[in-house]
From TrEMBL:
Residues 1-28 form the signal peptide. Residues 386-396 have a biased composition (Low complexity). It comes from Trapa incisa. This is FAS1 domain-containing protein. GO terms for cellular component: plasma membrane; side of membrane. InterPro entries: FAS1_dom_sf, FAS1_domain, Plant_FLA. It is a lipid-anchor; GPI-anchor. Residues 198-339 form the FAS1 domain. Keywords: Cell membrane, Glycoprotein, GPI-anchor, Lipoprotein, Membrane, Proteoglycan, Signal.
Length: 420
């Protein structure tokens, strides 16, 4: 009988060990480019469009890959100068994904000083011959440069820093600008279909579509108003509360500190152009103009059929199914209530949070975008952008996150208990 029990427990131990091993192996093999980039808010626009063009899923399914990321300023320049459609933008971004692993160290130790790499764009089958190959060369001055193989030897795109690495699986690095491509050239030569952002009057458009109270309040706050204007060119989506709801909220708004008023107003805009079709296909958190490092100020978009709601841990509102204004790069939607940022208002009341009431410095205009994190605030300690190439391994194979870590601990604990 005892022997039977011993063998029975051995079988359970063996099963749990196998489960634990399989779990660790699965986690070691997995990587998620959007989660890696979410640690770097200054790349949020690039990250957003990887998801929007469905390239993120393709990258996650491939090993190895190297993503040549550009920051929000470079992305804004492309979007504002040529206004590419999603198809063109997908081609542009596909050319930024190398189907090989180049970490910071490997880039500087390329055998022979140069290498050619296939790109995701070429792998799509839409290009012929060597078109789509990228030349990587270590220059005499030590800089690492990139350029198209068919670019007559011109290499004017430079490696700036390693952002994230899962060794030999995925590397995310920053480069100085987009690689020249036929897609960029086509977008630049296409006739402009969007209105000139310099001639767009945000407040006039809000006035004309039921958001007069919010528009007047925004106009009276020069810091917040200037942040809106500065972001129109690169893409902007505004969610303005309807007149009746915002008028009733004015006493609470006036009770905020000067700095929190700026953050509050900036919270109602996302630094990315989003059409209604895009909103209806989006689910998850998004950063706003108020997002600034530890001051997360994000909102969550949820859709149910034709209905789109915006949510924070304090309130939920529904946006109008018809945009007040929708011409790339600007979209304005009215909401049926005042969405309250959890950073300023408690979830149980609409009273300003005392901690934020004492704030004295207004946040900078954010250049940030969607982040899938659930934590109350973004921590600067999570940003490892300044690590050297030798230590740049922020996403280790066992960095499984909260839920995965709990499962691993549970399985390991069970094995230990049965072993005794």
């Amino acid at each position: 009988m005892e022997l039977h029990r011993w063998y029975g427990r051995s079988d359970v131990r063996l099963s749990l060990l196998l489960l634990f091993s399989a779990f660790v192996v699965a986690q070691a093999r997995s990587h998620n480019v959007t989660r890696l980039l979410a640690r770097h808010p200054s790349f949020s626009t690039f990250n957003h469009y990887l998801s929007l063009t469905l390239l993120a899923a393709d990258i996650n399914a491939r090993t190895p890959t190297t993503v040549l990321a550009v920051d929000n300023a470079v992305m804004s320049g492309l979007l504002s100068s040529s206004h590419p459609d999603l198809g063109t933008l997908k081609d542009i971004l596909s050319y930024q994904v190398l189907l090989d692993y180049f970490g910071g160290r490997k880039l500087r130790q390329i055998a022979g000083g140069s290498a050619l790499s296939t790109t995701l764009l070429q792998a799509s089958g839409s290009l012929e011959g060597s078109t789509g190959l990228v030349n990587i060369t270590v220059l005499k001055n030590g800089k690492v440069a990139f350029g198209p193989e068919d670019n007559d030897g011109v290499l004017d795109v430079y490696f700036l820093q390693a952002l994230e690495e899962v060794p030999y699986k995925i590397s995310v690095i920053q480069i100085s600008k987009f690689l020249p491509s036929a897609a960029i050239a086509a977008a630049a030569s296409a006739p402009a279909s969007a209105p000139d952002p310099a001639r767009i009057s945000l407040t006039a458009l809000m006035h004309a579509h039921g958001c007069k109270e919010f528009a007047d309040t925004l106009s009276a706050n020069s810091d917040a108003s200037n942040t809106y204007k500065d972001n129109v060119e690169g893409g902007l989506t505004v969610f303005c509360p309807s007149d009746d709801t915002f008028k009733a909220f004015q006493p609470k708004y006036k009770n905020l500190s000067a700095a929190d008023r700026v953050s509050f107003l900036e919270f109602y805009a996302v630094p990315i152009y989003m059409s209604m079709d895009v909103l209806r296909s989006s689910n998850g958190p998004m950063n706003t103009l108020a997002t600034d490092g530890a001051k997360k100020f994000d909102l969550t978009v949820q859709n149910d059929g034709q209905d789109v709601t915006l949510k924070t841990n304090a309130t939920t509102v529904r946006i109008s199914t018809t945009a007040a204004f929708d011409h790339q790069p600007l979209a304005i939607y009215s909401t049926d209530g005042v969405l309250l940022p959890g950073e300023l208002f408690k979830s149980s009341t609409a009273s300003p949070s005392p901690a934020h009431h004492k704030a004295v410095h207004a946040p900078k205009a954010a250049e940030q975008g969607p982040s899938p994190g659930d934590s109350p605030a973004y921590s600067p300690d999570d940003d490892v952008a300044d690590q050297s190439a030798d230590t740049d391994s922020a996403a280790s194979p066992l960095d499984v996150g909260g839920g995965g870590l709990h499962v691993a601990v549970f399985l390991l604990s069970a094995v230990i208990v049965l072993a005794n």
